[in-house]
Amino acid sequence: MIDARLHRWLSPLLGRRHPARRTPESFRPRGTSSRVSRLAARYDADVDEALRRLWPKARIYHDGEFARDRADFLLVVRGRGVMVETKVKSDPGVFRGSTLPPLLDRLARDGRRLLILLNQGDPTPARELVAAKLGDRARIVVWSGPEHDDELRAAVEELIRQESRHPL
After folding, report:
1. pLDDT range class, residue 134, cuts 50, 70, 90
2. DSSP 8-state assignment for residue 122
3. What is the pLDDT of residues 49-75, one digit of tens each?
4. What is the CATH classification number for the domain harbouring 73?
């Protein structure tokens, strides 16, 4: 029987590397192989493609590892940054934003702009939570494909027009 830890140490030495693990920019399920994780990986790739399509000259940075207090993307358009967090629901129900408080707390301290992209559902309760923490420096948009690009573009443009990222 092979010890998994020993196998992990020997694999790189023997040349058996997983190509997806060497590229932090790749979109792969985080943590588990659940259905939601696979949907999240696909959704992240679709969002990346949409951001590149809508703002071809923008710089897009991806967070290489999963953390509840950091956004998935940083979109820099015309020198102004917008943090982009993606949320995936497997059902079309209500999105309450229960996973958002660590990210909202951090961004409230940092004074950054935030766009939350939801694949489906009703984000009304989450909008109230986000407005209470970040005010007008955050938006939630339901985006599930190119047919919603206009809402995505309007939300990002509205956020980057803001003069200061720090509250008065």
Report:
1. very high
2. B
3. 999 999 999 999 988 777 788 899 999
4. 3.40.1350
